[in-house]
Amino acid sequence: MNHCARFRIFFYLKMRTVPFHRAARAVGVFFLAALLFGGSSGELALPGYRYEFPRDYFSHPSYQTEWWYYTGNLASNDGATFGFEVTFFRTHSRASESTEHNPVWFPSEIYIGHFALTDVRNRRFYHQERVNRSGPGLAGIDANQGKIWNGNWSARFLSYEPIRQRLEAVSSNAHLLLTLASQKPVVIHGVNGVSQKGPKPGEASHYFSLTRVAASGALSLNGRNYTVSGRAWMDREFFSDVPGDPVSGWDWMCIQLNNDEELMLYRLRLKDGSISPFSSATFVSAGGTSQFLDSRRFSLTPLKTWHSADTGADYPISWNIEVPSKELHLLLTTPVVQQELVNRVTRNYWEGLVRYSGTERGQPVAGDGYLEMTGYGR
């Protein structure tokens, strides 16, 4: 998803404003943007990369940008259903080359966190962002502790075999605390160690996922406490910037079917209105084996759209998905159309829980997952 200028687009589209005084807000975001987009460099994501675990669960300082991305669908014992997103970003700026500043406070590493909740029963969507420097332990990644954190938001590895994690995020009206247990091994996306996003060498990311994760724990929302359980998905990417890119945005989907299969797909939209041939997908069997699918082996067709009065965006919130080699035909819908993140300074985007129904080899299938759409509207 975000490498080269495409990955600059990702941060420009996804980075929400810092919650401080309005006058400081513009200055802070301008300064942060200058650091993020001011010509940073780092090690390129190139073919032949050999993944190693648990090493690759944690930080790769030689790469400019990386993230840990958790989404999932939860249900409570009283029938309420929720979607969640908790994301941790680390990005390295060229300012880190300076030796004239106190390394504790100088923002050579920027840590960004996103926390969003969808309350399906009440048709409500909540989101929050935070931005930190590492400072005296304000945010960071520590392999010795098995921890990724931003303030009191954190993902901690409890064990590696099996993979178990503890995920926590807190906002003014919500507290999410989950235990995550992966039910399948790590899935590597792409070919030969890279998920290629364009024709240039390094115009790619190192990208892997945990595609079926049992989630259980507690959610407090607007003063109500819920015991929740469900399924989660974890994405992990790291890469560095490569100049020049024709991508205007993308549509990304993760699918968790009730027959224990999963599918990740993304469609890169180019500025001339066409779809990039570097769009791709990964199919994961019930047994955990994965298969790369290039853009010729699947199709994503947008259907019904939802119009945002706030941003003028028309988001496709219903899709047809076809994977001919699997005889898989799916319809994507969502029970909550308003899952758009509207920001004051930076771009807006839509990300939320979705449902899937259809057939595979003539048999009915259904499932749930998440949809992300960037680059729509003003």
β-strand percent reads over 45%
CATH homologous superfamily identity: AttH-like domain
User: What is the first-to-last residue Cα distance?
Assistant: 21 Å
The residue ranges in which pLDDT falls below 50 over 5 or more consecutive positions are: 1-39, 95-99
**Mean pLDDT figure:** 87
Look up the CATH topology: AttH-like fold
CATH C-level class is Mainly Beta
Quantity of strands, as a count: 25
Largest beta sheet, briefly?
A: 13 strands, antiparallel
Task: Indicate the structural class.
Answer: mainly beta
Proportion in helices? under 10%
The ordered string of helix (H) and strand (E) elements is: HHEEEEEEEEEEEEEEEEEEEEEEEEE
Shape: globular
CATH-scheme architecture: Beta Barrel
Number of domains: 1
Helix/strand layout:
Blueprint lengths: L3 H11 L7 H16 L27 E12 L4 E12 L16 E11 L4 E10 L5 E4 L4 E4 L2 E8 L2 E8 L3 E9 L4 E2 L6 E2 L7 E18 L2 E16 L7 E11 L4 E9 L9 E5 L5 E5 L4 E4 L2 E3 L6 E3 L2 E5 L4 E6 L6 E2 L7 E12 L2 E12 L4
Antiparallel strand pairs: 1-2, 1-13, 2-3, 3-4, 5-6, 6-7, 7-8, 8-9, 9-12, 10-12, 11-12, 12-13, 14-15, 14-25, 15-16, 16-17, 18-21, 19-20, 21-22, 22-24, 23-24, 24-25
